């Protein structure tokens, strides 16, 4: 069982917006602004999309945005495109000085 | 551009030691500032943080508590490589193993290797 909880799947039509939640506890998501999001296409390594809750690395589309409220972080993908179909994982730093991953969410366009 | 590449045996017998190396190019491990991390992904499953090693003159390691008793990580600055050893492996250690660079160390893995599948037969 993963330390962070994500929905197993989310779907949307091209052009729509979707959100993926990542629920933790007051020992991880709720206490640190150290949530990151990764996109993983089948057979490929994960790719960093968001770090420190809201920051986008250079080269990542502004269609991807992150936020956090309490113990839940959220990834929003706006203007959904076919290429966004992938698995998405969240991760958070914890009070145990470790990193926890979510179980992953399959996005279908 | 930073590149990471995992190498090591793809098949390890039960009870033996799994050994992997990650070769880094485009950045120097010895310059500090980053945590050099191992992550694995069991077949058709999610990601699991294994731990990291940090080098800046001396080394510091931080391991997943669930694996800590079987883990060892090291750095070879002359080859710009870092390594992972997992002892007493079982079929549950079968996974794709990734090396990655954490810019924080708060889980911001900005560069990844392509991953290498390690199989431990049951």
Question: How would you sum up this structure, described in words?
Answer:
The complex is a heterodimer of chains A (109) and B (122). With 109 residues, chain A is mainly β. In chain A, 0% of the residues lie in helices and 42% in strands. Chain A is built from no helices and nine strands. In chain A, strands 1, 3, 4, 7, 8 and 9 form a six-stranded mixed sheet that branches. Chain A has a three-stranded antiparallel sheet with strand order 2-6-5, with no helix packed on it. Chain A starts with 8 loop residues before the first strand and ends with a strand. In chain A, 37% of the residues are buried. The model of chain A has no long low-confidence stretch (mean pLDDT 96). Chain B has 122 residues and is mainly beta. The model of chain B has no long low-confidence stretch (mean pLDDT 95). Chain B has no helices and ten strands. In chain B, strand 8 and strand 9 (109-112) form a beta hairpin. In chain B, strands 3, 4, 5, 8, 9 and 10 form a six-stranded antiparallel sheet that branches. Chain B starts with a strand and ends with a strand. The A-B interface holds A 2, 32, 34-36, 38, 44-48, 51-52, 57, 89, 91-93, 96-104 and B 46-49, 62, 64-65, 98, 103-110, 112-115.
Series of secondary-structure elements of chain A, N-terminal to C-terminal: EEEEEEEEE
Mean pLDDT of chain A: 96
Largest interface: A-B, 27 and 20 residues
Model regions low in confidence, pLDDT < 50 over at least 5 residues of chain A: none
User: First CA to last CA of chain A: what distance?
Assistant: 27 Å
Shape of chain A: globular
Mean pLDDT of chain B: 95
Major sheet size, sense and barrel closure of chain B: 6 strands, antiparallel
Which oligomeric state applies? Answer: heterodimer
Major beta sheet summary of chain A: 6 strands, mixed
Number of strands of chain A: 9
What integer value in Å does the Rg of chain A equal?
13 Å
Outline type of chain B: globular
């Amino acid at each position: 069982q993963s330390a962070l909880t994500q929905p197993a799947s989310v779907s949307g039509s091209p052009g729509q917006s979707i959100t993926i939640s990542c629920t933790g506890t007051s020992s991880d998501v709720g206490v640190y602004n150290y949530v990151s999001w990764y996109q993983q296409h089948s057979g490929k390594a994960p790719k960093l999309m968001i770090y420190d809750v809201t920051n986008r690395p250079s080269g990542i589309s502004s269609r991807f945005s992150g936020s956090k409220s309490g113990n839940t972080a959220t990834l929003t993908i706006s203007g959904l495109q076919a290429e966004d179909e992938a698995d998405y994982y969240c991760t958070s730093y914890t009070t145990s000085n470790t990193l926890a991953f979510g179980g992953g969410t399959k996005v279908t366009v | 551009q930073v590149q990471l590449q995992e190498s090591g045996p793809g098949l390890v017998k039960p009870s033996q030691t799994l050994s992997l190396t990650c070769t880094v190019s485009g950045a120097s491990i010895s310059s500090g500032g980053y945590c050099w991390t191992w992550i694995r992904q069991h077949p058709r499953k999610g990601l699991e943080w294994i731990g990291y090693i940090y080098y800046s003159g001396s080394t510091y390691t931080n391991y997943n508590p669930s694996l800590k008793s079987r883990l060892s990580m090291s750095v070879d600055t002359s080859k710009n490589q870092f390594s992972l050893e997992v002892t007493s492996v079982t079929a549950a250690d079968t996974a794709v193993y990734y090396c990655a660079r954490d810019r924080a160390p708060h889980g911001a893995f900005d560069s990844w290797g392509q991953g290498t599948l390690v199989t431990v037969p049951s």
